[in-house]
Design a protein that fits this description.
- It is a single chain.
- The protein is of the alpha/beta class and 306 residues long.
- It is built from eleven helices and ten strands.
- The strands form two sheets. A six-stranded mixed β-sheet has the order 1-2-10-7-8-9, with helices on both faces. A four-stranded parallel β-sheet has the order 5-4-3-6, sandwiched between helices.
Length: 306
């Protein structure tokens, strides 16, 4: 698949039996209805019980690309991406290596997230934070691969966002094209938004809600679209007001919001990404950011762990 413009995995992953296209359902919520806005939920959390949401869309084409080689990737101690990669390795019989940020974690008991990775057969390799920050530099990456005993591995970047993944996420936009006026998604590394916007086509705007602070994501998305498609695609924007302090950070207000949404709609709300997305959309509706008569689709990219 190198250099191709494919939008999804080949038949080699058919045995995983993903549920595609994922369901799109309207939910009745007075916080939107009083502003004349319809809320739709794109239930990507139902694609696969272990490769959930955008993890399927980004990982599946990369697993094809790996062609049976060991897959090495990166993440923090609570990385959804590491867990999904480890699960994929178990399901497909692939060797996986997870490079984990924080050498100090090597001598501590594994937290539940990393323990799940190890139980699924992923070999964990811990690196210091300075090395981790430089992991994209060719010399540093080569040294990490050698130290991990994975010199010939297929490397997937942190969060899974690379041109192959972005092209895979284009299918999400194609499934939603013409179904809503605005399609919103929580953003970590930006790959899902980059592909989503490309697949939506004209007439629908993609909105990204970053869960990290820093203001770097717009340029990253432009670079990803350039690498994946040769240039910018789609109408997209970011609203970076709803990160609640950064990745894996929250407040009692956000926790209360997530619990309330679960109670209202009977849908489990993942806290690192999805809660921030839904909170942002409620806030934007109250700000009258969406014209009356608008249909807003929220992409539910994950579910709570464990």
């Amino acid at each position: 698949m190198t250099g191709s413009d494919t939008s999804g995995p080949r038949d080699s992953l058919a045995g995983l039996r993903p549920r595609l296209p994922s369901p799109l359902r309207e939910v009745a919520d007075g916080r939107f209805e009083r502003h004349g806005v319809r809320l739709l939920l794109k239930r990507d959390d139902l694609i696969h019980p272990e490769l959930v949401g955008n993890k399927w869309r980004k990982l599946a084409p990369n697993l094809d690309e790996a062609a049976g080689r060991t897959v090495l990737t990166f993440g923090g101690a609570y990385s959804n991406h590491l867990r999904a990669t480890a699960a994929a390795g178990r399901l497909l019989g692939l060797r996986t290596v997870g490079v984990v940020r924080g050498q100090e974690l090597a001598d501590r008991p594994l937290n539940p997230s990393l323990a799940r990775c190890a139980a699924d057969g992923m070999r964990l390799h811990f690196v210091d934070r300075s090395t981790y920050r430089r992991k994209a530099e060719p010399r540093t990456l080569a040294a990490v691969l050698r130290a991990a005993g994975a010199g010939d591995a297929y490397v997937v970047p942190e969060g899974g966002s690379n041109p192959v993944a972005v092209r895979g996420c284009r299918a999400l936009g194609e499934e939603l094209a013409g179904r809503a006026d605005v399609v919103a998604v929580a953003c970590g590394t930006g790959g899902t938004l980059a592909g989503l916007a490309a697949g939506l086509g004209g007439g629908t705007r993609a909105l990204g809600i970053p869960v990290l602070k820093g203001g770097f994501l717009a340029e990253d998305i432009r670079v990803l679209q350039s690498e994946a498609f040769g240039g910018p695609r789609g109408d997209w924007s970011l609203d970076d007001r709803f990160h609640f302090g950064g990745y894996a950070r929250a407040t009692p207000e956000l926790e209360a919001f997530a619990e309330d949404f679960e109670h209202r709609h009977g849908i489990p709300v993942e806290r690192l990404y999805v809660a921030k997305l839904l909170y942002a959309l409620v806030s934007l509706a109250e700000e009258n950011a969406f014209p009356r008569g608008s249909e807003v689709a929220a992409v539910i990219t994950g579910r709570p762990f464990p």
